[in-house]
Amino acid sequence: MIYGAMKLSIGGPLKLAFRPWVEGLENIPAEGPAILASNHLSFSDSFFLPAVLDRKVTFIAKAEYFTTPGVKGRMTAAFFKGVGQLPVDRSGARGAGEAAVKSGIDVLERGELFGIYPEGTRSPDGRLYRGKPGGLARVALATGAPVIPVAMIDTEKIQPPGKVMPKLMRPGIRIGKPLDFSRYQGMEHDRFVLRAVTDEVMYEIMKLSGQEYVDIYATAAKRQLTEAAKAEKEAAKEAAKKEEAAKKEAAAKQAAAAARGMVEGGTVPDGKLDDDERDDAADADRPGKERSGS
User: How far is CA 125 from CA 37, 118, 211, 214, 225, in A?
Assistant: First the structure.
């Protein structure tokens, strides 16, 4: 009931405003369980995909969206529950994986659609990263549900990092043919099988999306980018310090050279004058003052 209301109030305006194009809707079964395995480019992926489907699709989301205190936190939690997202505690890697598997199995056992992002997090640069086998493959082999590859197109361009207002443009969604992994039934604890299943799904997503594939995890790529940005910032600070020191040194050298020039040119006497000499020099330079003779 809440999902339907949320879909009407959010999905309807999304479709009207952004007019997403869709290919392969016929690959979504009219009934029965199925896993939608999608690339992940933007926060909005979990809204655009459900908006174009007639059936309810349930995604998992980090638990922080459901546990933030205050009025805003309660509104956020209500919103995510309303759009059919389930909380998963990601504080421990193994615990998070187990929670995702259990949530997926529960959804599929009810005969519903379960949505999952095999990359585990949003792509940091628009490329497709290595899929994590813990959730997708285990859920697929434990339930026997077909896996439907999905490619989100250009959703990251709608609201790039740092931009407050979204850009009105048409994102796309390509839905591939269902993949059957029944040949691996009962082998959900074999890590080589889990890897093979995940890689096959990622290959299909890559073909649908046209993204460049990177054979490392997106979390590792984000870590590398963060470290590179930090190193670049430190290098810039060090360069600024060196530039400031160089400016000060150049100013000091220029002042010293000017002082030497004044001394050598006779503008400034070389050495100190005593009090009587300063007084005589001042009198001599004063207009109308006659020099005293010997």
Answer: 19, 16, 11, 11, 10
pLDDT in tens, 255-294: 888 888 777 766 655 555 555 555 555 555 555 555 444 4
Task: Tell me how far apart the alpha carbons of residues 236 and 242 are, in angstroms, rounded to a whole number.
Answer: 10
Q: Which amino acid is at 13?
A: P
Dist CA 118 CA 141 (whole Å) = 15
Instruction: Return the closest-CA partner of residue 134 out of 179, 185, 187, 198.
Output: 198
Give CA–CA dist 142/101, Å, rounded: 9
Model confidence pLDDT, tens digit, residues 34-57: 999 999 999 889 889 999 999 999
Instruction: Tell me the pTM.
Output: 0.75
Query: Would you say the C-alpha torsion 54, 78, 37, 146 has a positive or negative sign?
Result: negative
Q: Residue 174, Cβ neighbours under 10 Å: how many?
A: 21
